[in-house]
TrEMBL record:
It comes from Oharaeibacter diazotrophicus. It comes from the Bacteria. PANTHER family: HELICASE MJ1565-RELATED. This is AAA+ ATPase domain-containing protein. Residues 24-213 form the AAA+ ATPase domain.
Length: 491
């Protein structure tokens, strides 16, 4: 199932739709000068995708905390210790709660360190918690600067390393980076280079226009386009939105930031002497200079909010166990079938497919807790081999499944593929069919799998005078018909 996120309208009036699953795999870079509409764009993307995917927003100015009221995001005020932030990040991934990390009120060094610690906490989560998450970083040039400046070198190193991990290695952990920057020249190249989708807004400096044109594959003479863009209009390109650069007008949003654009107001009508008296009057007793500081929030308070955001349902002993019932099995079968309909499924890693499977289960509202990774690994192995359906001889097939259970989970599907051919006296599958059942295109890997099972006594391979392969299964007493090892997968 493809989830489309509407971010606005193209020039011809067609809707600009982001393929959310493709975005999770290919990441996004947003660039535009201050006032070009980057925050509005990010807010539109977050609001439209909130029902479908977990989100984390690194918010240096506190603009996105209003998402909490409308979409249930938990606001994490980064005023605690580094250990607290790392613990909260791990709990966020564990409980799949969308959060806004509010860095407002911290100086630049502390913002960089807090962002780095939190991103590292998300990145270092246990493998069982690698659920898909959209990680949005506003003002990314603060956390991944191209050059060292006045910031503390240690804070810069931690922040830059975390941002690099997010964009370069985060995909396998389910983390999809969406970064927004005012200037590409200020952003570290290793971070910017990993994005495959781009939304380029208004900019005026020649170096930024030229770099934006290069990223979008435009000619240098077309770089002037970025100088003439209206506010809220971006040139979009990428596998998640379109294969050619097209201007996109960002649509409206449901929530609003706490800042906003400055509005002109008439000056107060006061005589000059009154204004001077207001400014230069002596300080009143107890009057102090107001400083903006973030109020400290304890880890216990944040963890309590996380727990309340996703409450566990109260146990009902008398209610039927939906997860173990026929309804649950039918729903899981339908989700697995939809997953196998994707032609790329045969050649993706199990961890990537498992994350895709969990997203599809959530969209299909499968009742109960989702299946664990070992269950999915065994199920996907048999599904790839196409041996989910039982043959007519069910007793013999149950014996074959019992023998296969002694093999590693990722090889069982290959064994059952050969066993089905032997049970039905069909020709032995070719190398391409065996490779596809294992999730690879390598015929050499297929031959090594057969050799591995032969060394352990699960099967015996022989070749007839015509070069066809015959496989015998000693434990079952079955044997395949001769089959061409070089046959295509369909044959």
């Amino acid at each position: 199932m493809t989830v489309g996120v509407d971010i606005g309208a193209k020039t011809g009036g067609q809707r600009a739709i982001f393929d959310l699953e493709e975005l999770l795999a290919t990441r996004l870079l947003v660039q535009g000068n201050s006032g070009s509409g980057k925050s509005h764009l990010l807010r539109r993307l977050l609001e439209q995708s909130a029902p479908w995917v977990q989100q984390c927003v690194i918010d240096p100015e506190g603009d996105f905390v209003t998402l909490a009221d409308r979409h249930g995001h938990v606001v994490v005020d980064a005023a605690g210790s580094e250990r607290d932030l790392a613990l909260i990040a791990q709990r966020v991934r564990q409980h799949r709660v969308s959060v806004v990390v509010n860095l407002e009120g911290l100086d630049v060094d502390r913002q960089m360190r807090a962002a780095g610690v939190f991103l590292n906490g998300l990145f270092d989560a246990e493998r069982d918690h690698w659920y898909p998450m959209l990680v949005v970083v506003d003002e990314a040039q603060l956390f991944a600067p191209a050059a060292s400046g006045d910031a503390d070198e240690e804070a810069r190193r931690v922040s830059l390393a975390a941002m690099t991990n997010l964009m370069c290695r985060g995909r396998k952990r389910g983390l999809a980076g969406v970064i927004a920057t005012q200037r590409l020249a200020k952003l570290a190249k290793n971070v910017a280079a990993e994005a495959s989708n781009f939304l380029m807004g208004r900019t005026f400096l020649d170096i930024d226009m030229a770099r934006a044109a290069d990223l979008l594959g435009m000619e240098r003479r077309q770089a002037e386009t970025f100088r003439n863009l209206d506010r809220g209009t971006f040139v979009a390109l990428g596998p998640a939105i379109g294969r050619k650069p097209e201007p996109v007008k960002i649509g409206g949003v449901e929530t609003a930031g706490r800042g906003g654009s400055p509005k002109l107001l008439p000056l107060p009508d006061k005589p000059a002497e009154d204004a001077a008296e207001l400014i230069f009057r002596p300080a009143a007793p107890g009057e102090t200079v107001q400083r903006r500081e973030a109020a400290p929030v304890s880890t216990a308070d944040i963890l309590g909010q996380l727990a309340r955001a996703r409450p566990e349902p109260a146990p009902e002993p008398e209610a039927p166990d939906l997860f173990a019932g026929a309804e649950r099995e039918a729903a899981l079968d339908a989700v697995m079938a939809s997953l196998m309909d994707d032609p790329d499924t045969a050649f993706q890693t199990v961890s990537v497919l498992y994350q895709d499977f969990l997203v599809r289960c959530r969209i299909a509202r499968v009742p109960g807790d989702p299946p664990d990774l070992p269950w999915f690994r065994a199920r996907i192995a048999t599904a790839r081999a196409g041996v989910d359906d039982k043959p007519a001889d069910e007793s013999g097939w149950e014996q074959a499944q019992l023998v296969a259970s002694a093999l590693p989970e990722d090889i069982r599907g290959v064994f059952l593929l050969v066993a089905r051919a032997a049970l039905t006296k069909a020709p032995c599958p070719g190398d391409l069919a065996i490779a596809r059942a294992y999730g690879t295109r390598s015929t050499g890997r297929a031959r090594r799998l057969l050799a591995y099972m032969e060394e352990r006594g699960f099967l015996l391979c022989a070749t007839d005078l015509r070069g066809n392969r015959i496989v015998s299964l000693p434990d079952l007493g079955w044997q395949t018909a001769p089959g061409n090892p070089e046959a295509t997968a369909a044959e």
